[in-house]
Amino acid sequence: MIAETVCSAVSAAGLGIAAVTAYRKRFLAAARIAAYSLVPVALVMTGIVGWLADTAFSVTAWAGFVLLGCSWALFATTRAVERRRGGTRKERRAARAAERDAVAPAGSAGSAPSLGPAAGAASRPSSRPAAAPRGEDDFSDIEAILKKHGI
Fold this sequence. Notes:
Number of strands: 0
Strand content: under 5%
Helix content: over 70%
Largest sheet: none
Mean pLDDT: 80
Distance between the termini: 75 Å
Low-confidence stretches: none
Order of helices and strands: HHHHHHH
């Protein structure tokens, strides 16, 4: 009973504020305020306020909310652990199988050891990356932009 009275008073106050706002020629804001002020009365008329009041004072309902919170916390924890480990069990199993089935490099596959520095240099990647053929074109564009801005 008190909840309905409070909601009605809040709605009446909101409609009064909307009327004052409309008097000041701010019709868009007045319409928005009126829309917000009609929500409490609508909640009372649909019965949601009564349901919320019954739920707020029900021990069984609060126990249900506690159980929902616990289940959410367990779910969030398991998801965090799963992300930290790197996926689901199926994904980890597939990754281990892929590691086992990976092909070993040709030099270490049990063939005869390479002799001499020439063979070692051929199997070892060079420490310097190969020069890109269009490298100077990219720098010339950048230089043109810098010159344009006086840098």
